[in-house]
Structures are given as structure tokens and as C-alpha cells.
Design brief:
205 residues; mainly alpha; Zincin-like; 2 domains
């Protein structure tokens, strides 16, 4: 009797770059009225330091999809990046409107993208509290204490907006460096206390 599949794990991705390229052509006709210019579609082992599902490079006319995704996720990542190609490089209002349009048109979005709403943040105004929450989430990743400020800002722009470049983000929000330093210090102290507690418990005392 064959073993039962483990729950919660995606099936291995079967779509390669050539197959996703055909999907791009199909979706361009079906959802974008063939208004997107030709793009090279690549399946790559790693997108960047936080392993996003996909990446859109407007200048080089290239879309990359992370290797190892299930077919449904890979297709959803492709649609996600095609919406960027149609609108902007961040997740502000123009992109959100496009994603909502695609959802209504029946495009195969990922589960996360299906929940996009115009009531979400508009991608422009950044508060310390908002940036702090993102930093706290990022610090939960392995080796996060080695992250640079540019790494964190790139992630924030990618997911929320607030600026086009890292330099512009720093100019608009000069407090971001202090927020990251304080968060890393607090997280390092937490890890130290946790390690001390584990040693104490292991020694039975």
C-alpha cells in the first residue's frame, strides 16, 4: 500500500520556464488584451534573500518564478508579476486595482492575492509602527541579525511601497535606521535569554 501524502505540502512543481512562457502568452491574451510586451520567463532556484515567489524586471523585460512551487502557486506568481508589468513595481493602489480586476475576471490568483482589498494601505504613507511590524516579522527568519538596512527597505518596498528606491525611502523616512537597530538589539537580547533558559533546563537546574 503506497504511503499517504503528507498534509500541507505542495506537490513538486512541474511547470518549467517554457511552459510558463506559454501561460504568459495565454494570460496576456485572456486577461490583458495582449497589451503586455513580450517578457522572458525564467524559473530560478532563488529569487532573493527572502525567497519571494516571483520577481518582475521591467527594464530587462523578464519575469522570474521561484523553483519548487506547486503548479498553482507558480501560475499565481506569474499572474502577480504580470500585474506589476501592467501597473507599477510596488504594491500600491494601481497594482491592487489591477489584481482585483484580475480576480473578478477569474484569473488563477494565489490564495493570498485573492484577499487583496482597496481598503488596505495605499502604498504611500509609512509610519514607524508599520515599519516596526515588518521588521519584527523579518527578524523571525534565520540569520536575520545579519540583515542590512537596505535588505529590510527592499523588502518593505517590494511588499508595501513607500518609495521606488532604497535611497528615496531613506530620505523620506530618516528614522528607519534607528528602528532596525533597536529591533535587532531587542531580538538579540531575546535570543540570549532563550539560550540561557535552554541551558538551564538541560542541566535540570
Amino acid at each position: 500500500m503506497p504511503p499517504k501524502p503528507r498534509q500541507g505540502l505542495a506537490d513538486p512543481a512541474m511547470l518549467n520556464g517554457r511552459q510558463l512562457r506559454r501561460k504568459f502568452i495565454e494570460f496576456n491574451a485572456l486577461y490583458f488584451s495582449n497589451k503586455l510586451p513580450p517578457y522572458a520567463i525564467r524559473v530560478v532556484r532563488k529569487i532573493n534573500w527572502l525567497d519571494f515567489m516571483g520577481r518582475h524586471d521591467r527594464q530587462r523585460r523578464r519575469i522570474e518564478v521561484r523553483q519548487g512551487l506547486a503548479d498553482k502557486e507558480a501560475v499565481g506568481a506569474l499572474i502577480h508579476e504580470m500585474a506589476h508589468a501592467r501597473t507599477t513595481d510596488h504594491h500600491g493602489m494601481p497594482w491592487k486595482r489591477e489584481m482585483i480586476r484580475l480576480r473578478k475576471a477569474g484569473a488563477p490568483l494565489t490564495e493570498q492575492d485573492m484577499g487583496i482589498s482597496l481598503d488596505d494601505w495605499d502604498g504611500i504613507r509609512v509610519t514607524k509602527q508599520m515599519f516596526q511590524r515588518r521588521v519584527d516579522n523579518i527578524l523571525c527568519a534565520p540569520s536575520s541579525l545579519n540583515l542590512t538596512l537596505s535588505n529590510v527597505i527592499e523588502d518593505f518596498i517590494r511588499n508595501y511601497g513607500g518609495a521606488i528606491t532604497v535611497a528615496e525611502f531613506k530620505r523620506k523616512h530618516p528614522w528607519v535606521g534607528a528602528v532596525l537597530r533597536d529591533a535587532k538589539k531587542e531580538f538579540a537580547e531575546y535570543l540570549k535569554l532563550q539560550a540561557e533558559l535552554e541551558v538551564k533546563l538541560a542541566g535540570g537546574g
